Automatic annotation (TrEMBL):
Transmembrane segments: none
UniProt key word Membrane: no
GO CC annotations, alphabetized: extracellular space
GO biological process, one term: immune response
Protein name: Chemokine interleukin-8-like domain-containing protein
Organism: Fundulus heteroclitus (Killifish)
Length: 92
């Protein structure tokens, strides 16, 4: 199992891969993302066998990956702004 983690702007998130599955989130954070987002994914609790949580995965223009808590208060407005730019979250 490969574990990828980083901390930026006080936000920590963990991504995991296990065999052929793509990266997934094991933990989330409600912290705001201050960087520009280039892509978004929605991980549902049943998407990955080793990542049983609901999360939004944001990839920034600097290729940083953030696992966002779906209950984060700022998330709906950020998703609207992304949609206005043509960026929608793909369901994994």
């Amino acid at each position: 199992m490969c574990i990828i983690g980083h901390q930026k702007n006080g936000m920590s998130d963990e991504l995991y891969t296990d065999g052929p599955d793509p990266d997934c989130c094991k933990t989330t954070s409600p912290a705001r993302i201050k960087e520009h987002v280039k892509s978004c994914y929605e991980q549902r609790p049943n998407t990955f066998r080793n990542c049983k949580i609901h999360s939004y995965i944001f990839i920034t223009v600097s290729n940083q990956t953030y696992c966002v808590d779906p209950d984060a208060s700022w998330l709906p407005s950020r998703l609207e702004k992304l949609a206005a730019k043509g960026i929608t979250c793909k369901i994994l």
